[in-house]
Design a protein that fits this description.
By secondary structure, this protein is α/β, with parallel strands linked by helices. The longest helix is centred in the middle third of the chain and has 45 residues. The protein starts with a strand and ends with a helix.
C-alpha cells in the first residue's frame, strides 16, 4: 500500500526542497493538539501550552480540526515563502471556494482522492460538512457554521490567529529551527543534483522511494492516494516537528507536497509497512505465540519445541519459518544442533513500529 505521485516527464528543476514557516507552524500546532503522537516533544509542548494566554488557547481549540487529526492542505504551501507573512499573503489570494474546500478536506476525507465540490457551492457538501462537524461537538459545529456563513470574516479571523501564534511562541521556535531546516533542504537539493532523485528521496525518508521505471514516487503509508506532479512540479518540505508523520498533499488540482521529518540520530528509521504487517500476522497464531514464550527465555531446537508442545517437528519447522521470515527469530548452529531464539529487540520495537506506521 502506498501513495503514488506520478512524475513522468518532470524535469529535476521542478522538484523543490524548501523549508516553510507556515508548514512548520502547522506541524507545531498539531504537536500542541496531539502531544501523545510526539513523545520526544513533550517538554516543548508542555512549556508552550502552559505559556499560552487563555484567549489564544481557546481560539486554537476552536480551530484545531484544521491540524489535529490531519493537516489541512492550506497549511502545506506548494511554493514556500521566506516568512510567515509572505505565505499568509499568498493564502489570502486563494479564492473562497478553493479555500473552503481545502479547509474541510478532513471532514470530507473520503473524497480526498477525487475532485471535491465546495461546501459554499454544493448543498450536499455543505450538509455533510455540518453533520461531521456536529459529531465533533457543539463548539466545532458553531465554528463550521461561521466558516460557511461568513468565509471572508473567518479567513481574516484565521490569519489573525496564526499571526498571534507567531507572536506568542512561533517566532522564537522558527528562529531556532529554520537554519536546521534550510541546511537539510539544501543538502537534499544537492543530492538531487549530484546523485539523482532516488538518492534524495531516500535521504529525506526511508518511507520514500522511486519506482523502477523512475516515473513514480512511492510513499509507504497505510493509505492509498494518487497525484500527478507532471504539470505542476513537486515540493518537499522538511520539518523538525513532524516525526513520526510523513504528510502528502495529493488532492486533485493541487501541486503535490511532501512534508518529511528531519532525521536526527536518536530517531529510528521507519519500519516498512509490509514488515509490520508480516510480524503482526506471524504472531496472530496461538501456537506461534506459545512458541515465542519459550524462545523468549532462551535458544531451543526444533526437537525440544516439538516435545514441549506435543506437535510434530515438521509443524514446528513451519511455524519457525513464518517467524523467521517476519524477522522475529535469530538462528545459530551449535555442532549438529540448530538453535532458535526470539529476537527481543525486534519484538520490543513492534509496538512502536505499529504506532509509527499508523501515524505515518
Amino acid at each position: 500500500m502506498a501513495n503514488v505521485i506520478d512524475i513522468a516527464g518532470l524535469p529535476p528543476e521542478r522538484i523543490v526542497f524548501s523549508p516553510s514557516p507556515l508548514a512548520e507552524l502547522g506541524a507545531a500546532l498539531h504537536v500542541l493538539s496531539e502531544p501523545g503522537h510526539h513523545p520526544g516533544l513533550h517538554g516543548w509542548a508542555t512549556a508552550t501550552a502552559s505559556g499560552l494566554k487563555p484567549d489564544l488557547a481557546d481560539r486554537l481549540h476552536e480551530a484545531d480540526f484544521l491540524w489535529r487529526s490531519a493537516r489541512c492542505d492550506l497549511l502545506l504551501p506548494a511554493r514556500p515563502g521566506a516568512t510567515l507573512t509572505e505565505e499568509l499573503d499568498a493564502l489570502d489570494r486563494v479564492d473562497d471556494e478553493a479555500f473552503m474546500t481545502a479547509a474541510f478536506e478532513i471532514s470530507c476525507s473520503a473524497s480526498y482522492t477525487r475532485c471535491r465540490t465546495s461546501p459554499l457551492a454544493d448543498a450536499d457538501a455543505r450538509a455533510r460538512v455540518r453533520e461531521m462537524a456536529a459529531a465533533r461537538g457543539p463548539r466545532q459545529a458553531a465554528f463550521t457554521d461561521r466558516m460557511l456563513n461568513d468565509p471572508d470574516g473567518l479567513r481574516v479571523w484565521l490569519r489573525r490567529l496564526l499571526e498571534d501564534c507567531e507572536q506568542a511562541f512561533f517566532a522564537d521556535t522558527w528562529q531556532r529551527t529554520r537554519f536546521q531546516l534550510a541546511a537539510d533542504a539544501r543538502h537534499k537539493a544537492e543530492l538531487l543534483q549530484r546523485k539523482g532523485l532516488a538518492e534524495a528521496l531516500t535521504a529525506a525518508s526511508a518511507a520514500l522511494s522511486l519506482s523502477e521505471g523512475g516515473d513514480r514516487i512511492l510513499v509507504d503509508k497505510l493509505a492509498a492516494g494518487r497525484a500527478t506532479a507532471s504539470g505542476h512540479g513537486l515540493t518537499l518540505i522538511p520539518t523538525a516537528f513532524g516525526w513520526p508523520h510523513l504528510l502528502v498533499v495529493h488532492a486533485p488540482g493541487w501541486r503535490p507536497v511532501i512534508q518529511y521529518p528531519v532525521a536526527v540520530p536518536e530517531l529510528p528509521a521507519p519500519a516498512a509497512l509490509e514488515l509490520v504487517q508480516h510480524r503482526l500476522e506471524a504472531l496472530s497464531h496461538p501456537m506461534r505465540m506459545r512458541l515465542c514464550r519459550t524462545l523468549a527465555r532462551g535458544p531451543h531446537t526444533t526437537g525440544e519445541l516439538s516435545e514441549a508442545y506435543g506437535i510434530t517437528p515438521p509443524e514446528v519447522s513451519r511455524h519457525i519459518t513464518v517467524l523467521k521470515k517476519a524477522g522475529l527469530l535469530t538462528t545459530r548452529r551449535r555442532g549438529r544442533y540448530v538453535l532458535h531464539q526470539l529476537d527481543l529487540t525486534a519484538v520490543a520495537r513492534l509496538g512502536t513500529d505499529f504506532l509509527e506506521t499508523v501515524l505515518r
